[in-house]
Amino acid sequence: MTEPAVTEINTEKIKEIMDASRPKMKLWLKVCAHCSLCAESCFLYTTKGQDPKYMPSHKFINSIGKLYKKGGKVSRTALEEIGDIVWNRCVLCTRCYCPFGIDIPEMIALGRKICRSQDIYRKYDEE
Amino acid sequence: MYELVRGPLVWVSLIVFVLGTVFQIFRFYSLSRKVGISPHVPLQPPKKDRPKWYSPVHLVDFFKKAGGTILSVSPVTITISTVFHVLLILIPLFLLGHNELIDLSIGIRLPSIPEHVSDILTMVVLLCCAFFLYRRIFMARVRSITSFYDYLVLALATVPFLSGFLAYHQMTGDYRTMMIIHMLSGELMIMAIPFTKLTHMIFFFLNRFTVVGEHTLGKGSRAW
What we know:
The complex is a heterodimer of chains A (127) and B (224). In chain A, 53% of the residues lie in helices and 0% in strands. Chain A has 127 residues and is mainly alpha-helical. With 224 residues, chain B is an all-alpha fold. Chain B is built from eleven helices and two strands, in the order ααβαααααααααβ. Chain B has helices at residues 2-6, 8-31, 56-66, 70-73, 75-94, 96-106, 115-138, 140-143, 148-168, 175-192, 200-210, and strands at 33-34, 222-223. A two-stranded antiparallel sheet of chain B has the order 1-2. The longest helix of chain B is centred in the first third of the chain and has 24 residues, at 8-31. The chains are: A mainly alpha (127), B mainly alpha (224).
C-alpha cells in the first residue's frame, strides 16, 4: 500500500464528524466517574500486565476525550497518538463493562472514524 | 448568613436539583431511541410457572448471577461503593436533625433513625470516602485517569458528611461556622448532581435499566 502523503490536519472535517455525535459523547465523558471498574473487562488490560493504558476508560479519555477537550484542534502528532490508542490498544471486541452503561466501543469507533478521515489507520500490509 | 443557608438556599438547591434532573432525563430520552425486545434478556416462562418472589430460588439465582458480574471481579470496591452510595442517600433523608428542620419548615417528616446509629453510619461514609481517596492516590490505574476535578467531586460528597459529623460532636470551636459549612456544602452537592460528574447518579439508573445491552439490569427497551 502506498504511504499516504503527510498532510495538514483538516480540523474542519474533524469538527464535522465530532459535531454529529457531540451531545452523546459529551454526556458519556461527563458520566464517566473515573472509577476504573472497566479495567478487567478488557482482555488486553489483563494480558498486558494490567498496564493502565489498556484500561477502556483510559483509552477513551485520552482519545475522544482529548479531541472534545481541544475542540478537534490537534496536531498530526497528537492525532497519530490518538490513532495508536484507537487502532492498536483496542480491537473493538465490544465486551467492555461500564457500571454507568457508557458505550465505550462507540467512542473508540468514533475515534477511528476521525483518524481514518485524516489518513491515520492501521496498515496491516506493513506488519 | 446562617439564616440564608438554612432557609432560601435550601429551596434554591432543591429547585436546581429537580429542574436539572428533569433536564437530564429529557436529554436521555432525546438522545436514545426505543427499540424492540432485548436479545440479552432471556425469555421468561409463563407467569404461573415462575417461582414466587419469596422463593429461595431467587436468592440462589442472585448469587449465581453475581458470580459472573463485577462483584466477583472487584468484591471489595463494589461492596464499599454500594454501601457508600446507599448511605449517601439514606442518611440525609432519615437523619433526626434534618427531619426536625423539615417538620419546622413545612410540617411533615420522614421516619428518623436513632442519632447514635446515624452517627456510626456517618463514620462508615467517611471511611468509604477515605477508601476512594486511597484508590485515587495509590492505585496506578485509578491515578492514571484522575484529575483535580475528580478530587473536587470526591470533596463535594465528603465535606457535607465530615462537617456534619464535626458539628454534631462540636469538635471545632465555632459550632455555627461548622454548621454553615455543612449546610452550604450540602446545598452545593445537591445542586452539582445534575451538572457535574455526580450526574452518574441519574444516568446509572437511566442507562443500566433502560438501555439494551449485555449488562442491562432492567428489561432494556432503548438504544443510543
